[in-house]
Protein: D-xylose 1-dehydrogenase (NADP(+), D-xylono-1,5-lactone-forming)
Organism: Mycena chlorophos
Amino acid sequence: MLAFLSRIHYILNPSPQTRTPTYDTLPGKQLNFGCLGAAKIAPGALIKPSKTHLEVVLYAVAARDAKRAEEFAKKHGFLRSFGGLQGYQDMLDDPAVDVVYNPLPNGLHFEWTMKALAAGKHVLLEKPATNTAAEAAAIYALAKRKNLVVMEAFHYRFHPAIQRVKAILESGELGAVKKVKAALTAPEGTAPEGDIRWSYDLGGGSTMDPGCYTVNVLRYLAGCEPTSVLTAKAIPYSDRPEHKHVDRMFWATLAMENESIGEIHANLDEKKLWGIIPRMPKLSAVVECENGTVEIFNFLIPHFYHSITVHPRGKAARVEKAYSFGGAAKGEVWWTTYRYQLEAFVDQVQGRTPQTWINGEDTVANMKWVEAIYAKDGFGSRPASKYQPRAEGEDTMYRPSRTSGTPMSSPQTSLTLIQPIKDPVPSAGAGDSQYSWYYASNAGGMKIPFSRHHGKPMHQADLAYLKYASVNFVHAAFNEAFGRYEPGLNAYIDDVEFNPTTNDYNFMNALVPFGKLFKGKRLGDCHDKQFFEWCSQLVFLRKKAAFNEAFGRYEPGLNAYIDDVEFNPTTNDYNFMNALIPFGKLFKGKRLGDCHDKQFFEWCSQLVFLRKKYSLFGRALDHRLGNQHQHLVWLEVGARIRRSKYKAELVDEPLSQADWDRIKELDKAAYNDGQWGSSDSEEATTTKGDPVASDSEGESLSSDLDGFIVSDSAPIVMDTDEEVVARATVTPQRRISLASAKTRKGKSIRSFVVPQDESDGSYKEDSQLEDSESDDQQVRERQTRSSVRKKNAHQCYSCTDNPVDFDDVSLAQIQQSRCASCEKKATGLKPVRTSVKKGGSRVAPRKKVGTLPDSSDSDDEMESNDTPKTPVKVKGAKKRVGRVPSTKLARRVHPYNESPSKGRCGRHVITIDADMLQELKATATIVATPCKHGTKGKGKAKADNAVSVLLTFPL
Ligand SMILES: NC(=O)C1=CN([C@@H]2O[C@H](COP(=O)(O)OP(=O)(O)OC[C@H]3O[C@@H](n4cnc5c(N)ncnc54)[C@H](OP(=O)(O)O)[C@@H]3O)[C@@H](O)[C@H]2O)C=CC1
Ligand SMILES: O=C1OC[C@@H](O)[C@H](O)[C@H]1O
């Protein structure tokens, strides 16, 4: 019962938090979906499933009525709406749309799918694909020519339940198939009078609607095609002439290639028994085989509930359920058929292999047998579409004005377009510090090292010349710089000019026509979303049609941008941009959103061992890289090409030293030649004279607690000078909200310290890394450790004056070691030796005071120091454990649990949702640093009073 309720809850409330992390596949680019029609099925089939799909953007909806389109967009979170007579076509003409979902009435499927394909869009097409098999074949022929993906949305085929039935049949357990019976019925009134399903012209009828599923499931479970329709009978919806060919229900028997028989039935309007008692809908498929039967109840929407009854002849029947594929396969028990379908569809578009696919042959065959049934029962095929596809080749040339028709649109000429800017030189927007790198000389700032433009920064030369030079002059540094510069420039140019490929104008150049703040400025230079929202709602301002249109174009990009930097209350999603970069010297500890070095991210996103080690960060990275609107904030080009700066990241990098020496030489040569333009970027300053960026380790950054996504292995340390009550709530997707952390006095804890070094020896034993860490890496790691040791050899991390002795201890221990005097001040204890032998390494003693649930990990060398001092209550825990068995986890936590802070000591009370943890098989380790009683007062040492919570999850 609980499982049922939980499933229903997730089905009804999908949210980004319930997204399944895909650790092992790099998400591709995000796909903008455009929905044709504000259809009833759209929320279930596309909108809700999209909430948990990282790569799907609800970009636009088009409806015949503009207001309805707008309302639908607003309600469901589409970024744009198109309305009016031209609305559908306008949406197809929008170059931003990648995929079209077509849930129009059946009779319009052909026309709009053909038009969508002609416009270069992939199509997820509702069932039944078309009115006739010939139309379906034409669709697939065009899709093939245009290399586009089309799929008929027989969603049930993607669910594990029907696939389990298929697997049972294929296993041979029940022998050869003899008969397949399938029925689908809907209670009276489900499709009321006037519904599209009762219109002959729109492709209505029970054989077309529920019936097409019965044909499909028959063919699927029989494992072969029919050979003929043996019998077919249909009853019209009413006696009225317009319903003469519209069937309310039908029965048919078909002979199958494997000599089995198919019996199918559908009723789209099943009357009540005696006019008063509603009948249970029929939703089953039964397969009778030589040696038994298998029946699936509710093959259509099994995600709510289903049962698979297998009855081998002469044996007891067994009942199975299949809500997910299990193992490493993608999916969750609460994924709907539509969610599974969306996953497969997107996989196919992105070039990955989908779990299941429905190809064109399958679709055409299904339509063929629907038509054959109609032929046999005398109702006849649905009318073929009147739409005449354009001649071959015409589709690629056809570029209708994107502004024609709808009331929201305006003629092109009325737009206030400023002259295209050829180069990204400083402009009005340069004052915005957030964007200074966008405009500053570091964009295209490299000085051209040859010929007529010698000494000029790239951005002063025209693009054509640069292109010419890059082909004709062999100059490695220039070519590399240009390679970096050009994509950004192209994106920029696309934004400011007419783009002949997409036939699209750049609305970012529309000038804001009113107001004090931004009047006369380019839309693209104003980054104040609130302002735009405000003015977009004022009717009299909206009459300024040109601006209005421009704003409509601008907003989605802006939304994407805003969504990226803030918590988004609509999607209830936190911002991946806040993920802190967990490694390296360049950006470690910085917010992802604060780093504009795309090449760095591309570089590290491709390193498998980094992805394994920092899987959640990997996701954040993909999100950042995959966001197609990102060019608004991404345009960092030019002088940042010094790849050798990544050398610092290469502790684990498998490139050979020779490769890096070569890169460094190239880089140095370019630098010495004075090819680098002056740059006001921080990197440029710090790297002057030394192409390798300086070490920025050791700084600790604090950030708002809210929205931080705990990485699989990153501990969080909260500093407080009071007692702490922290409530760690864990969602199934491994998100933890520590926002409720409060001090005993009720003060919220507003900051936390993220430990600075995870890439050191303290993670050495992480089993996830073992397979990816080669001997080479270990050698490199040893070298790094030794160099860090040298660097830190004279520093106590607390007073930073006195020397600390240490021997071969982990990097983290070295960095956290205190000198004897600080150690004593802080803990009242003499420094304790680790088990490491020579030299008397000194590390602070750890106090581990609680774990949930019990860890069974084996001991390690830290065991000897584990004496709990601070009492900890674990509320809500199944058991209270006073002492943590020595574990890897504890060992990991240790180096970070000693953030010195002022204040009195106190009990640390940590409340953890124990049931949730147990369900997730997560382990929480609570570590408190010792508090020394009586240390308050003048001249006395301050007590350390910190607590850390570490949650780890099995991968
Ligand atoms: N996969 C599944 O489980 C299901 C699939 N379907 C399929 O989805 C499609 C749509 O079904 P459903 O959502 O119930 O349909 P709706 O009754 O909601 O109609 C769909 C859309 O068709 C548009 N439309 C365009 N022209 C016409 C017209 N002449 N008359 C009426 N509507 C028109 C309307 O768009 P606008 O907003 O522009 O006015 C409407 O929003 C069908 O092909 C159906 O078979 C349906 C239900 C379940
Ligand atoms: O696709 C569908 O599935 C369920 C049916 O009730 C509905 O009419 C149909 O369009």
Remarks:
- Residues 37-41, 45, 63-64, 68, 103-106, 108, 126-127, 153, 155, 196, 202, 209 surround NDP (ligand 1) (CB under 6 Å).
- DSSP finds 29 helices and 27 strands in the chain.
- The first helix runs from residue 2 to 12.
- The radius of gyration is 33 Å.
